[in-house]
């Protein structure tokens, strides 16, 4: 079977991880990645043997630093069937006319407005609706974490409403210009935050409201979630459902002593996971509290990697490489080594 040719436009936090994940798929071929500046990330991409494409007129800057350039970004797009746009929020929309001009499908990221794509996407929620679409938007890291939990509970029991408070990391580890802040910032001061609104781009029927604060850390986000289900349940039923779910890992703080995002990050590093990534949603099993039809829990989201499996499934859905969501999800998860923990 011929592989679908995929370009990655924007080789930063998300783009570099998506590029690596594409190279692990037997139904995809990485055409190349784009860089705007000849910095350490460009050197790393070249070192991995990825073909580098750059904005027109910038080739010499790269060549002067000994970085081989394979062509312009437009040339990369013209050689591809589908592009994963991982440029900074709002830049993807500016590239959209180029993708349309070359008849190339596009997978955008959560920093873009929902209107950039035909549908917002989460593998566990709406893979089937995304099949064959010309453009998809993989929702942001916090939205992906919320949707994984909600769609798993909704499939097994049914969800009526969700309220969630998000403690957001201030910056990614590499963002030297932003840095953690010595404050807890209301994000934004007026409620609700945009995260619940973003969840509704995938689940328009859901009653959801969220609040968020920015906290001084770079490691992960933590959510406090309260969900009302369609019937009464119990802690052991919820644990059973989450244990069976793809892309969710249960951690017991009593058994493991893990009570923080720092310890989760340490486990990922101890296990030699690439870049210390945790693409799974982490749910603290012993945080789960059930009162009738109401479930309350803590969960953690690794912002740099949680959307990577969803990007791979979005490529597969848009390119119609697998019509069954579970075929794509299990293929992605086994190639990325997900849920192999402890
Ligand atoms: P980033 O800044 O780490 O990477 C963006 C890359 O795009 C950089 O390499 C930059 O040089 C490149 N770029 C900038 N302008 C460009 C242009 N005109 N053409 C081509 N490349 C260009 O950003 P990121 O964190 O990877 O975010 C990318 C997208 O993913 C955003 O929409 C963001 O909201 C979303 N996202 C980010 C995170 C996160 O926590 N970092 C999580 C989920 C989703």
How helix-rich are the residues, as a percent range?
A: 25-40%
Computed over alpha carbons, the radius of gyration is: 20 Å
CATH fold-level topology of the largest domain: Rossmann fold
Shape: globular
E-strand count: 16
- The share of residues in extended strands comes to 15-25%
CATH superfamily of the largest domain: NAD(P)-binding Rossmann-like Domain
| Integer count of domains | 2
The chain-level mean pLDDT equals 97
Strand order of the largest sheet: 4-3-2-1-5-6-8-7
Describe the fold and architecture.
There is one protein chain. This protein is α/β, with parallel strands linked by helices and 342 residues long. It has 2 domains: 4-139 and 307-336, NAD(P)-binding Rossmann-like Domain (Rossmann fold, 3-Layer(aba) Sandwich); 141-301, Dihydrodipicolinate Reductase, domain 2, CATH 3.30.360.10. Helices cover 36% and strands 24% of the residues. It contains 13 helices and 16 strands. The strands form 2 sheets. Strands 4-3-2-1-5-6-8-7 form an 8-stranded parallel sheet, sandwiched between helices. Strands 9, 10, 11, 12, 13, 14, 15 and 16 form an 8-stranded mixed sheet that branches. Strand 5 (82-85), helix 5 (91-101) and strand 6 (105-108) form a beta-alpha-beta unit. Helix 6 packs parallel to helix 12, helix 7 crosses helix 8 and helix 12 (308-318) crosses helix 13. The longest helix is centred in the middle third of the chain and has 16 residues, at 141-156. The two termini are 36 Å apart.
